[in-house]
Design goal:
The protein has 238 residues and is mainly beta. It is 0% helix and 48% strand. The strands form two sheets. Strands 1, 2, 3, 4, 5, 6, 7, 8, 9, 10, 11, 13 and 16 form a 13-stranded mixed sheet that branches. Strands 12-15-14 form a three-stranded antiparallel sheet, with no helix packed on it. The chain is globular.
Length: 238
């Protein structure tokens, strides 16, 4: 059989995380370390690989930091954290989610804040804590589902289309639509503000005017996608 379709054969390599193509992640498991991935993201695999539900240790579930910890004010409700599965064994796993564009980030003791809906996979050793944006519960975008990732290791982030990375410099402000923001350097100061006086602006795409935006100041960067819609998988809309 002949067809350009058959040119898209599986690539080979020893890298722990690599892109098969811009929308498909290849993960190599060596039988020692495990990888955490978004539940349901596996599209194919080879070898002896097991997929099991992941739950944070009981001692960490209510801590201020650690896997799945929540940082919020008095009486604040804990947001939904990552819905993950453990990938263990030996072989190759292919991960994807709704043909989203994928980006491999290497953390070197950095701190990065990412909206949880945009995390596809990460090393099991990376720690995270949920962080809230004041007033964020009023919008359907980043809201209170932002996670601060820290430590050393790899995290794979998704975007709807090719992202825009905007540098933020001290003394300057950068603004972005709250529904288009994917993540930012955790050292930045972030504030939520309304661009419209329309009381319906909090509803996703509920008006023809711009609604909520985030302002950033400090030293770092902001990741923005060319879409104001979150990946629909497992995303509750208000």
């Amino acid at each position: 059989m002949q067809s350009p379709l058959l040119d898209h054969t599986a690539l080979v390599g020893d890298e722990r995380f690599a892109l098969q193509n811009p929308q498909l992640l290849r993960v190599a498991l060596d039988g020692r370390a495990e990888v955490l991935a978004r539940t349901g993201a596996m599209v194919a695999h080879t070898g002896r690989v097991r997929f099991t539900a992941w739950r944070p240790p009981r001692s960490q579930r209510n801590q201020q930091a650690g896997h799945g910890g929540w940082q919020g004010g008095p009486g604040a409700a804990q947001p939904a954290a990552l819905d993950l599965m453990r990938c263990t064994g030996t072989g190759t796993v292919y991960l994807a989610n709704l043909a989203q564009h994928l980006h491999i980030l290497e953390l070197q003791r950095d701190r990065l804040t990412i909206t949880s809906n945009y995390v596809l996979a990460l090393d099991a050793g990376i720690a995270w804590q949920a962080v809230g944006i004041e007033g964020g519960e009023r919008i359907s975008g980043v809201g209170s589902r932002s996670l601060e990732l820290s430590g050393r290791g790899t995290v794979v982030v998704m975007t709807s289309g090719r992202p825009l990375v905007m540098p933020v410099r001290a003394g300057e402000y950068v603004y972005a639509d709250a529904d288009a923001v994917v993540g930012w350097s955790s050292a930045l100061e972030v504030q939520l503000q309304a661009q419209s006086a329309n009381t319906e602006a909090w509803r996703r795409r509920g008006t023809a005017t711009e609604g909520w935006e985030l302002s950033f100041t400090g030293d770092g960067f902001v990741i923005v996608q060319p879409s104001e819609l979150l990946p629909p998988q497992r995303v509750p809309l208000r």
